[in-house]
Design brief:
Layout: E1 10-21, E2 34-40, E3 43-46, E4 57-66, E5 76-83, E6 95-102, E7 107-108, E8 115-118, E9 131-141, H1 170-173, H2 177-182, H3 199-211, E10 222-227, E11 236-241, H4 268-275, H5 298-322, E12 327-339, E13 352-358, E14 361-364, E15 375-383, E16 399-405, E17 417-423, E18 429-430, E19 437-440, E20 453-464, H6 477-487, H7 525-529, H8 559-567, E21 622-631, E22 640-645, E23 648-651, E24 656-657, E25 661-670, E26 681-687, E27 703-710, E28 727-730, E29 741-749, E30 760-761, H9 770-775, E31 779-782, E32 786-797, E33 809-816, E34 819-822, E35 826-827, E36 835-845, E37 853-861, E38 866-875, E39 881-882, E40 891-894, H10 899-905, H11 907-911, E41 917-925, E42 954-964, E43 970-972, E44 975-977, E45 980-986, E46 989-992, E47 1003-1012, E48 1018-1025, H12 1038-1043, E49 1047-1055, E50 1064-1075, E51 1078-1093, H13 1097-1105, H14 1112-1115, H15 1120-1139, H16 1147-1153, H17 1164-1177, H18 1179-1192, H19 1197-1212, H20 1217-1232, H21 1256-1262, H22 1272-1304, H23 1312-1331, H24 1334-1345, H25 1358-1364
Parallel strand pairs: 7-9, 18-20, 25-30, 39-41
Antiparallel strand pairs: 1-4, 1-9, 2-3, 2-5, 5-6, 8-9, 10-11, 12-15, 12-20, 13-14, 13-16, 16-17, 19-20, 21-25, 21-29, 22-23, 22-26, 24-25, 26-27, 28-29, 31-46, 32-36, 32-41, 33-34, 33-35, 33-37, 37-38, 40-41, 42-47, 42-51, 43-44, 45-46, 45-48, 48-49, 50-51
């Protein structure tokens, strides 16, 4: 037969997408989630998505079928870079750029090169930047050989033992013909043997079959390996056919020259979809099977047993994974109503309906006919994207709700669009937090005309999935045989690409029933091939077929051998599903090893990553040591591991007992190559002692072994590298045993290593204590979400059954935690109940539970003490939430007798008491910003309701480098020491650095990132001293409690609006504390800060025109007298919440950062500082008055002459007055641009605070508590000084009142002559101004005012004298 030829017809064009650089940010946080889409000749391919990266790297190859036509130049390859809105929603276009390549630019494989193409626009209005690196080339692949159909064998030729009936699970080997044929193009082809080489093996097989009845044995090895790179990824299953013998060749006709069929490996994707349709993480497994022609032999039993073990492991793994995905997330959009819509039907009305679109899903409401204020009250349900996509369901597609006019009800020639609303996915809240919000309808284009608003409730819920229906049990093997025999002849003829199919003429072997009595001889094949559901106990595999290897180098008495034997679960307890009998596979002609091409697994879920990569701080080298476990140690030992290097040592905790001795702890030692730190060697030793024992005086009998490493040979690892693998090391030097091993990993890294956060540090305080080291680690905290609780007390009824005393009053008191407020006291009315209509405001923190209640009580005040009549409670979880100023439904509360009333009148009388009813209205206002910071240092102006949050404008990155020259805060061991750590606060996020022990120049080099929603906010950084833990032996008390508190060392505040965009500011900021002795500099802190905006500069400038506080602060403002009390309550709640964290952020730290540590009274220093601030701010007014006086006095004749000329010019052209003033102000700003601050202003400013040389007495008064704790004579002296200051203020207020009363006396006729003169003068001025042009009047008045001093009188002007003589009310004040 002639050799098979190949033709180069299929050409594959490979577009290798490497990376892109400097893309535009699209997601509102300064980054993008780009992916690449390539289009060529009607084919489209996409790459994976790289989240939160402006310089993505794909390194993927995209293949296209390429059949070059006659004119290849007409074909164009277009590669576009797009932003995935599921990763970062954006209101703008997701287009990032594209390139177009002509087909003439394609080169052959081997001639390609990495080329960076600049991204181009798609239209004139696009804004793109950056470039993309591509490799574009084409390759030629040989065509697949033509399919050959082997002749069908006669029914009598195929004996029962002709081929091996290999038993396997149904998903593994059954029905693989179509699946393998579909993967023919993707799998490599085996070489075909020559045509003449097939005759000799066939003759040998015929001779062997004629001489012997025993079928030849063949070894068929099938390896199945399941891997799972991630929890949500399906395992990749590889099936590799290793060997087969030539004796299993098929019998062919003598005249046939058809080559034997090619072996076809089983597709791995089919196995994945069949066995593992749910999320799981299976363990790697391999099954080796010896296949023989007779399935009833011992080898056949080993096949069935091995496959059952494999099926049992996969089934048990899948059963466990079903529990993981028990819920599905749904988005609920409640369309309530719309108001004030546009008429569209020509009769002054419309027939509107709402249409909602989310993630490719569309829902509609019913149509309300002829109504401009329709009410739907319908709930539309949407499905969130699947969790396997790798995006957060609450940060995905935007929701669009459009209101349209139904043209079927009211025909209209105009557009039926009435308006739309687009909501970001970040505004979705969980069920229970939703509120009815009215959104103004927006235009779809510039030419639309819309009006009105729509009320929506948008939230999401987690709906539990229905339990999966049990699969029907497969029929028994004996029952399935006839059906299979009937169905087989109807199957189409098999080709050479499907060697696994069985011949239609070969009937299946009969099988024994499951309930048949077992025979003493070897187990027949029917017992293995029967239905697994009919067998009560799964058959066990042959011990000889799968021997259990013994552990190597295992000591005689070790703990892990006993534990491993106890923990190993028996396999017989797992459910077993025996597969049905499989068709006999077609034997292969020769020994072939077929490499299976594994399908490319889907990319792992892309998690959002912070932009911060420690690029603002210095890298700190560390030596990391990870101690994992040990084996071979004595069973009764209690070991711990001691790590020592360079004078530093650390000990692990006591080992956890299990299969091994487990520790899994990481240690980090500072590495300084200049000083050869931490030392040349690293010692790791194992001791049979408590962790806090002194090993220097321990006996050698407690030493179990050790290791020694050279620190110069430690592998260096950077942050992008994966974690270093641990290794087993043989312990040396132990006296009690030999052959013990310790699993250890050592590497050199920086603070960017993922193991650094939880690692033990040598510079941490109380380094030998694991608990103290855990509390000194760096952590990030989040403040609770605070809500404003508004209680409106309206009225009460049936409060008193007996006539009250005349002077009795009644009031309502409400209590929420430590907050207690009371309405005004109202006299008890004889005819009706008391009424208040008063609002009481509280601060409440999420989460709201049933135990959190608002207690409302009714009090009757008669005398000094109030008497509670009755009380009621309202659970916070049941209170309605609102985000606007709409009124909520009021309720009547039944007041029950209180405990105090029962004590006063007795329990029996209290049972018959009735406290009456109270009419209240209570709600949680989500439209307010509940601030816990002072207004001048606020870092977040967002309201409590997440539905009202604006998109972020950018991010602020803070690098806390370290401190310089800190002062000692306490004495330890006869010397001063400081254990410093820093705390940064912006918005609800708090960042705490690790504590560095006993260092006056600590270096943290930690970096944090916050989203920015308003540029006019303040970032606060404070430095504190971490106190040592109080031992139980020291006892408690005030001194111990004061010593256990963190002491502040100073804070720095930086306003973000003073920072330039994208610029890094790094410098030293002073830490100044105001103490009773005066201002004291505690040291300097080095910070690096960068403010990066995600959008354009117009978005940032637009934020300056928006109100800082939410709309509710302007529609229904909070009274000024309640603002500070609410802020202090919010700060106290936040501090208590942070103090309950683990490790806790101390309460005194949070309150000091929020300026809520303790209320302070009057401060003379601050009064003078504020006066100087006002004087400095208004200094330009004094400078302008001084300049005018100098010009009027002719001190500079040239300037005075120019002033006359300008006066004439402005008088004749008054339209130039405003431009001249604004141009002058602009010139002043440009002139001062040269002296603009190059760095953020240091905080605090000692000079502006008047703290350079303060008076000791004034400072003592400032730090005095309320009420005062000073002696009576000191309080009397301060009172006298305050009286003197009050007298001066009294005189100033009197002078202002006098001038205002004189101005009123001009027309009050208190002085008839003065008023008459003033009225006559006004009439004269009116007549003159009517007859004389105003220009002439202005020039004459200006020249008169600027006349030379020689023409002036040194006495006051007559006008001033006339005004000073007017009467006032000063003489009438007693």
């Amino acid at each position: 037969m002639a050799a098979t030829t190949t033709a180069r017809k299929l050409v594959v064009e490979v577009v290798e997408v490497v990376e892109a650089r400097d893309l535009l940010p699209k997601d509102g946080t300064g980054t993008s989630g780009p992916y690449t889409r390539a289009d060529f000749d009607g084919q489209r391919r996409k790459t994976r998505t790289v989240t939160k990266d402006l310089n993505p790297s794909w390194n993927e190859a995209l293949e296209f079928a390429f059949f070059p036509p006659a004119a290849a130049g007409d074909m164009v390859l277009e590669v576009s870079v797009l932003h995935v809105v599921r990763v970062g929603p954006t209101r703008r276009s997701n287009f990032l750029g594209r390139i177009r390549l002509d087909a003439r630019q394609f080169v052959r494989k081997g001639e390609e090169a990495l080329v960076y193409f600049p991204l181009e626009k798609k239209s004139f209005f696009n804004w793109v930047r950056g470039d993309i690196g591509l490799k574009v080339y084409y390759v030629d692949e040989p065509l697949a050989p033509p399919e050959r159909h082997p002749p069908a064998a006669a029914a009598g030729d195929a004996g029962p033992d002709a081929v091996a009936a290999v038993e396997a699970p149904a998903p593994l080997l059954a029905e693989t013909t179509d699946a393998t044929a579909s993967k023919d193009d993707e799998l490599p082809k085996a070489e075909e043997p020559p045509a003449g080489a097939a005759s000799e093996p066939q003759s040998e097989v015929a001779a062997d079959e004629a001489t012997t009845e025993k079928p030849p044995k063949a070894d068929l090895t099938v390896e199945l390996e399941a891997e799972a790179p991630a929890l949500t990824d399906a395992p990749v299953v590889t099936v590799e056919v290793v060997t087969a013998v030539e004796e299993m060749l098929p019998k062919e006709e003598p005249h046939s020259t058809q080559p034997p069929p090619l072996p076809m490996p089983m597709p791995a994707s089919y196995l994945v979809e069949s066995l593992l349709p749910v999320e799981l993480k299976p363990e790697p497994m391999t099954a080796t099977i010896d296949a023989v022609p007779n399935a009833g032999s011992a080898e056949g039993r080993s096949i069935s047993s091995s496959f059952k073990v494999l099926d049992r492991r996969l089934a048990s793994t899948a059963d466990r994974s079903v529990v993981m995905a028990a819920t599905v997330r749904k988005l609920i959009v409640e369309v309530v109503e719309a108001r004030d819509l546009l008429p569209k039907d020509g009769t002054g009305t419309s027939s509107p309906y709402a249409r909602a679109d989310f993630d490719g899903q569309r829902r509609k409401t019913r149509t309300v006919t002829k109504d401009l204020n329709p009410s739907w009250n319908e709930a539309l349900e949407f499905d969130f994207p699947a969790a396997g996509v790798g995006v957060d369901p609450v940060a995905g597609e935007p929701l669009e709700v459009a209101v349209l006019h139904d043209v079927r009800v009211g025909p209209s020639r105009r557009n039926n669009f009435l308006g739309r609303v687009r909501l970001d996915a970040r505004q979705f809240v969980r069920k229970g937090e939703e509120a009815l919000i009215y959104f103004p309808l927006q235009k779809k284009s510039f030419f639309n005309w819309v009006r009105g608003e729509i009320g929506l409730k948008v939230y999401y819920v987690d709906v539990p999935l229905a339990p999966p229906e049990p699969e029907p049990e497969p029929p028994a093997a004996g029952d399935a045989a006839p059906d299979a025999a009937v169905a087989e002849p109807e199957a189409p003829p098999q080709t050479a690409d499907a060697p696994k199919t069985v011949s239609a003429d070969e009937p299946p072997k009969p099988e024994e029933p499951a309930d048949a009595a077992p025979a003493p001889q070897p187990e027949p094949a029917g017992a293995e091939a029967g239905d697994g559901s009919n067998t009560e106990k799964p058959p066990e595999a042959d011990p000889a077929a799968a021997p259990t290897p013994a552990p190597e180098d295992a000591p005689l008495t070790t703990a892990e051998e006993v534990a491993a034997s106890e923990e190993k679960p028996p396999e017989v307890d797992q459910p077993v599903l025996s597969p049905p009998p499989q068709p006999t596979p077609t034997p292969m002609p020769r020994q072939v090893s077929m490499p299976v091409r594994r399908p490319v697994p889907p990319p792992p879920p892309e998690e959002p990553m912070e932009r911060s990569k420690h690029d603002l701080v210095d890298k700190m080298p560390y030596l990391f040591v990870r101690v994992v476990r040990a084996r071979g140690l004595p069973a009764g030992a209690h070991p711990h591991v001691r790590v020592a290097t360079g004078g530093h040592h650390a000990s692990t905790r006591e080992a956890r007992r299990g299969a091994f001795f487990e520790w899994d702890q990481t240690f980090a030692f500072v590495r300084d190559p200049d000083t050869d730190s931490p030392g040349p060697t690293l010692e790791v030793s194992v001791w049979d002692l408590p962790p806090d024992a002194d090993v220097s005086v321990a006996d050698d009998r407690h030493f179990l072994g050790g290791l020694c490493f050279d620190t110069a040979d430690v592998h260096a690892r950077d942050a992008p590298d994966g974690p270093l693998a641990t290794q087993w090391y043989r312990l040396e030097g132990g006296r009690r045993l030999g052959g013990a091993d310790l699993m250890v990993a050592t590497w050199a890294g920086t603070q960017a290593d993922e193991a650094f956060a939880e690692a033990w540090k040598a510079d941490s305080p109380a380094a030998t204590s694991a608990a103290a080291a855990a509390t000194s680690r760096a952590k990030v905290y989040v403040s609770p979400k605070l809500w404003l609780l508004r209680l409106t007390v309206i009225e009460a009824q049936d409060t008193l059954t007996a006539p009250p005393p005349r002077d009795a009053g009644i009031a309502v008191r409400a209590t929420l935690g430590f907050q207690s407020l009371k309405t005004r006291t109202t006299p008890v009315a004889r005819n009706g109940g008391p009424a208040w209509n008063e609002d009481l405001l509280f601060v409440a923190a999420e989460p709201f539970t049933d135990d959190d209640c608002l207690v409302i009580s009714l009090e009757v005040r008669h005398g000094k003490e109030p008497f509670p009549v009755g009380s009621a409670s309202i659970s916070l979880a049941t209170i309605e939430r609102r985000v606007d100023d709409r009124k909520v439904v009021s309720k009547w509360l039944d007041l029950l007798p209180s405990d105090e009333a029962a004590k006063r009148v007795g329990k029996k009388a209290a049972m018959h008491m009735h406290g009456g009813r109270l009419h209240v209205r209570v709600c949680l206002d989500g439209g307010y910003n509940v601030a816990d910071e002072p207004p001048y240092a606020c870092s977040d102006f967002r309201p409590s309701a997440r539905q009202l949050w604006p998109p972020p404008l950018g991010v602020v990155e803070l690098g806390i480098v370290g401190c310089k020259g800190l002062l000692p805060m306490r004495a330890a061991d006869g010397k001063g020491c400081t254990d410093a750590y820093a705390v940064a606060k912006y918005g609800p996020k708090w960042a705490r650095t690790r504590t560095i022990a006993d260092s006056f120049d600590p270096a943290w080099n930690e970096q944090y990132t916050w989203p920015v929603y308003d540029p006019c906010t303040v970032l606060t950084v404070g430095v504190f001293d971490d106190p040592p833990p109080v031992l139980p032996s020291e006892g408690g008390g005030k001194d111990a409690a004061a010593a256990a508190c963190s002491r502040p060392m100073g804070k720095v505040r930086i306003r973000l609006s003073t920072l330039e965009r994208g610029r890094v500011y790094r410098g030293l900021y002073p830490l100044i504390m105001m103490l009773p002795t005066g201002a004291k500099r505690m040291g300097d802190v080095e910070l690096a800060i960068r403010f990066a905006t995600s959008g354009s500069m117009l978005d940032v400038l637009h934020a300056y025109g928006r109100p800082a506080l939410p709309a509710m602060h302007h529609l229904r403002p909070v009274p000024a007298v309640h603002r500070e009390a609410l802020r202090l309550a919010a700060a106290r709640i936040s501090a208590a919440h942070l103090g309950r964290s683990e490790p806790p952020l101390r309460r005194e730290v949070a309150t000091w950062m929020l300026d809520a540590a303790e209320p302070r009274g009057f401060s003379m220093r601050k009064l003078r500082a504020n006066w100087n601030r006002a004087a400095a701010a208004l200094s330009w007014v004094a400078d302008a008055a001084r300049w005018v006086e100098d010009t009027r006095s002719w001190r500079n004749p040239t300037a005075t002459a120019m002033a006359h000329a300008v006066l004439v010019l402005l008088a004749w052209h008054p339209d130039l007055v405003v431009p001249t003033v604004t141009l002058h102000v602009a010139a002043v700003g440009v002139w001062k641009y040269r002296r603009r601050p190059r760095a953020p202003a240091p905080h605090p400013c000692v000079r502006a605070s008047m703290a350079e040389a303060p008076d000791r007495e004034e400072l003592d008064e400032e730090f005095d508590t309320i009420p005062s704790a000073r002696p009576p004579e000191v309080v009397r002296a301060r009172y006298d000084r305050a009286r003197m200051v009050g007298a001066r203020l009294q005189q100033m207020v009197g002078d202002v009142a006098t001038q205002a009363e004189r101005l009123q006396a001009l027309v009050s006729w208190r002085d008839p002559r003065a008023t008459g003169m003033f009225v006559a003068l006004c009439v004269l001025v009116a007549m003159v101004l009517y007859m004389v042009p105003i220009k002439m009047v202005a020039v004459v008045a200006g020249f008169y005012y600027l006349r030379h001093p020689m023409f002036r009188d040194r006495m006051p002007a007559p006008v001033i004298n006339f005004f000073r003589r007017l009467p006032s009310m000063s003489e009438r004040i007693m």
